[in-house]
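seq as requested:
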Amino acid sequence: MLEKIIPNVLDKPDALLESIQETLVMTVWSGAFIFILGLFFGVILTVTKPGGICENKPLFQVLDKCINFFRSIPFIILLASLMPLSRLIMGTAIGVTGAIVPLIFGATPFFTRQIENAFAEVDSGLIEAAQAMGCSVPEMVFQVYFKESIPGIARGTTITIISLLGLTAMAGAVGAGGLGDFAIRYGHDRNQVDVTYVTVLVLVIFVSVIQYIGTFIEKKNIH
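C-alpha cells:
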C-alpha cells in the first residue's frame, strides 16, 4: 500500500534519513548556542533595564537596539549576508555546517525576548524581598529570576525550537541540507508531491514531540 501512496519516498529512503539527520544536527547544535546566548542576553536586558536591579541605561539601550536590528532582518537575507562570517568561523558557507551561524543569529534575538518576557513575569515582591535580604545580583538572578521563571523559560524554549525547525527548512532551500533541501530538491523540482507531503508529516511529528516535552516541563514547574 505504501508503494502506491509514497512511491518516490520509498525509492530514496537513505536520502530521507540523511535529511532528517541533517535537520536534527542543525537544530541541536544551533539550539545549544541559542539557548546559552539567549539566557545570557535575557539576563543582561533584565538586570540593566531602567529600574532593574543593576540599572545601566547605555548598555541596555545598545543591546536592545542590536536585538531589534537582527530581529527585523528576514532570515533568507540574513543567510546571504552572513556567508562571509560563516566561511570565516566554520570554514564553509554551505551545507549543514555553513547554516549554523545564520541560524544562531536568526533565532537568538527571538529567544532573548522570550527570556526577557519570562523574567518580567516574576513577582516584583519576590525581587524586593531578595534585595531586602541583601542578596547579591548573581544570587537574585539564579535564586529568584531563574527559579521562578522555569515555566516561562520552558515555554519560550519550546516556541524557539519550533521556530528554529522552520528556519532549518528555509536554510535547506539555499543548499544547507536537511528536510527543506529534501523537499525542494525532490518534491518541488521533480514534481514528486508525495515527497513534499512526507516531509511535512515528519516536521509535524517533530513539532508535536517538542511541544509535548515543553508543555510537560512547564506544567511540572508551575507552582
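The mean pLDDT is 89.
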